[in-house]
């Protein structure tokens, strides 16, 4: 067993209606003015107003920023940081999925230490604690509320860069299943399979440890039997609760074990072709599982038994059975199966492969991967 370390430096509140605890959390942190970061879509659904009302009913001041865009950019972060400084707020509440939380984390960095967000690209370059963040996920998928990373698109390079530091972990996470029970089926599917892939990639990562294994296995045990019913009926409260907690466990797992080739290859797909992150991951997963197959030492069978619909564990397992089961799950969720279906073309494969090789997730994939491998994987998934 290799050496490892872990810590869980956050406070996490879970429960239907747990948002009502937000004012108390802010007061405990001596913050009387909060900066809400979210997007126009959630504002139109009334989610932002609901949280704003809870904050203000607690006697606290609130400034709202709704400029978050999918695949947030350097300009997005700069704008949010400027608005935060102008507001006089002393804490941030991030409302949404990964995009809102990525903007919140990087805003917290720049507000505390200045400079450009590109100065902090890579591993552990944030020098210390950032602005306190309370994360309120509205999807069961990203795990960003408990992850130490943010992915920001640098449009000058047409590149999705990663800022990774445990100083960026939100101080609090509020997991209220009410927040995910109105999501459209397509979003529930894309986010849910993303959470499952977080757990799978962390589980087979070369940086996996007994701690991350425990988190990943629990995530798969919760997500595996609940993803299909949750996508079919987001009002299924038991499925919603399982998906929300499972996503958080998966986030804890990959925060320490990192990920693999699925995520390394998916980020360029979003940067070059604006493919939804969870969709890109779902398309790539069977291809990457097949590529990594010869490195398996029994973990594929465990993954298979977590996600299959049959009640009893499989007998006479072969790794190909997991690949077939993943495809079956993807079909059941109504997701695209090839890159060509989502508008990807081969002419950008060389550039995308070069960007994928810059991802820290390449280093923790269970099979060594070079740029020729990446190009072939893209071609196979096309």
Automatic annotation (TrEMBL):
Domain Alcohol dehydrogenase iron-type/glycerol dehydrogenase GldA residues, every copy: 9-177
Single GO MF annotation: alcohol dehydrogenase (NAD+) activity
One Pfam short name: ADH_Fe_C
Entry keyword Nucleus: no
Species for this entry: Secundilactobacillus pentosiphilus
Name of the protein this chain belongs to: 1,3-propanediol dehydrogenase
SUPFAM superfamilies cross-referenced by the UniProt entry: Dehydroquinate synthase-like (SSF56796)
Family indicated by similarity: Belongs to the iron-containing alcohol dehydrogenase family.
Top-level taxon in the UniProt lineage: Bacteria
Ranges for domain Fe-containing alcohol dehydrogenase-like C-terminal: 189-382
Annotated keywords: NAD, Oxidoreductase
């Amino acid at each position: 067993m290799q050496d490892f370390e872990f810590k869980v430096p956050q406070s996490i509140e879970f429960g239907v209606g747990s948002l009502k605890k937000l004012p108390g959390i802010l007061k405990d942190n001596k913050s009387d003015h909060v900066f809400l970061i979210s997007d126009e879509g959630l504002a139109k659904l009334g989610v932002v107003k609901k949280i704003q009302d809870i904050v203000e009913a607690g006697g606290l001041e609130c400034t709202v920023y709704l400029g978050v865009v999918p695949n947030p950019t350097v300009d997005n972060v700069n704008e949010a940081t400027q608005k935060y400084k102008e507001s006089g707020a002393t804490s941030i509440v991030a409302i949404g999925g990964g995009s809102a939380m990525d903007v919140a984390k990087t805003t917290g960095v720049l507000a505390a230490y200045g400079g450009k967000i590109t100065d902090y690209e890579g591993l552990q370059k944030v020098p210390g604690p950032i602005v306190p963040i309370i994360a309120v996920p509205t999807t069961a998928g990203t795990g960003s509320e408990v992850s130490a990373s943010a992915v920001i698109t640098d449009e000058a390079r047409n590149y999705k860069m990663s800022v990774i530091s445990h100083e960026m972990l939100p101080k609090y996470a509020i997991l209220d299943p009410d927040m995910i029970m109105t999501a459209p089926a397509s979003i529930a599917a894309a986010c849910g399979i993303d959470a499952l892939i977080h757990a799978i990639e962390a589980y087979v990562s070369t940086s996996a440890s007994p701690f991350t294994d425990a988190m990943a296995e629990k995530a798969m045990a919760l997500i595996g039997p609940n993803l299909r019913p949750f996508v079919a009926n987001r009002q299924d409260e038991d499925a919603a609760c399982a998906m929300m907690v499972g996503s958080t466990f998966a986030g804890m797992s990959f925060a320490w074990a990192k990920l693999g080739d699925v995520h390394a290859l998916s980020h360029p797909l979003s940067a070059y072709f604006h493919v939804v992150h969870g969709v890109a991951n779902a398309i790539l997963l069977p291809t990457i599982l097949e590529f990594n197959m010869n490195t398996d030492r029994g973990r594929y069978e465990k993954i298979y038994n977590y996600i299959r619909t049959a009640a009893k564990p499989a007998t006479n397992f072969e790794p190909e059975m997991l690949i077939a089961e993943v495809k079956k799950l993807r079909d059941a969720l109504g997701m695209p199966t090839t890159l060509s279906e989502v508008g990807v073309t081969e002419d950008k494969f060389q550039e995308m492969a070069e960007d994928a090789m810059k991802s820290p997730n390449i280093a923790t994939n269970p099979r060594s991967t070079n740029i020729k491998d990446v190009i072939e994987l893209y071609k196979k998934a096309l």
